[in-house]
Protein 1
Amino acid sequence: EAQVTQNPRYLITVTGKKLTVTCSQNMNHEYMSWYRQDPGLGLRQIYYSMNVEVTDKGDVPEGYKVSRKEKRNFPLILESPSPNQTSLYFCASRGRTSLYNEQFFGPGTRLTVL
Amino acid sequence: KNQVEQSPQSLIILEGKNCTLQCNYTVSPFSNLRWYKQDTGRGPVSLTIMTFSENTKSNGRYTATLDADTKQSSLHITASQLSDSASYICVVRLPFNDYKLSFGAGTTVTVRA
């Protein structure tokens, strides 16, 4: 089944404790992206990757890191989480540029930073 | 200011009734405009997509329209079902950038029996 998977689905942590949220897709997509979703604000892009070893900042990259060492994986790293990073996070992937190529979203990771 | 504004923020309708959701955007031109459905606790799933030159697209009981002159799109849900309870998000793909999307904040629809 074609899908984007994220782990963990739920995470409660404390300020300053490094964490990684994994993302994996099995559709051989070139493009992958991380979003955070907050009430009233909609989805905002954190980072995106156009291919292996190619990443770029989105609209809200502060406090986050990413890496793309393999095509299928795109982990999101919070080196020193803070309470304002409490949010719902989505990973997404899409095939190479095409007008209609759909972006597929993962199931989401709900992160709480105390 | 967000480039995509949706209204209403939420609405409640009775099962079997119709409803229309609005999306106003400032991005022009754009590559395409999508409507996504997001069930509680899950990732968004694409419902419809329209290019700049299209003005209507249907997917079952969902019909999206686009008016490029007024920069408005609407999503019409016909004969609502309980399973239509979800958040509906309008997304505009920006021109000249492969991976820039502008998201609306969404409209939460609750269908009651």
Note: Chain B has a mean pLDDT of 91.
Protein 2
Amino acid sequence: DADVTQTPRNRITKTGKRIMLECSQTKGHDRMYWYRQDPGLGLRLIYYSFDVKDINKGEISDGYSVSRQAQAKFSLSLESAIPNQTALYFCATSADRYSQPQHFGDGTRLSIL
Amino acid sequence: AQKITQTQPGMFVQEKEAVTLDCTYDTSDPSYGLFWYKQPSSGEMIFLIYQGSYDQQNATEGRYSLNFQKARKSANLVISASQLGDSAMYFCAMRENIQGAQKLVFGQGTRLTINP
């Protein structure tokens, strides 16, 4: 089983719909992150969380919200989806050590029509 | 200003040749880290190699090595003896330490194509 699991892997939906992307991890990491990737671009940070009680906005948080239900679960919501939120979304985790890399899920490909 | 710059949108290399992917960065923080990730066409992000700003030696991981030139603020990825499976997007990223949490800033990536 993957250490960082994202569901769904693909989603097509309509403008105005509420969407939730879910992320769960078995790595035991406290830190979790949500990124989006647009075609031909690098990843941009949406939200990150130190632990269950700590949520922080990243560089592109407008139009998104998150919930950290448990240490292992971090979900991303689009309250009213719009077409320019069509992108590849990644969840990532990291250990509480300076040199440790972030570990990514396989991504959710989201299309908003 | 862009913090991570990858100036090569695409590169084409013959199989078995070595390839260098460029990355320059900008930071005033004396403590930082640099990462390289590989993204194959299937989409997942695969961690390749890490270099810390205080590391004395260049990082190596198998066929991957990092040519770290601190004064020039460059952290180029070198892949030796390239293979067809190396064809992918490659991203350079810099860790910023925001309130104790790693925050990665990514470059725009380089698409590497290995020709047989």
Note: Residues 32 and 93 of chain A are 4 Å apart (CA to CA).
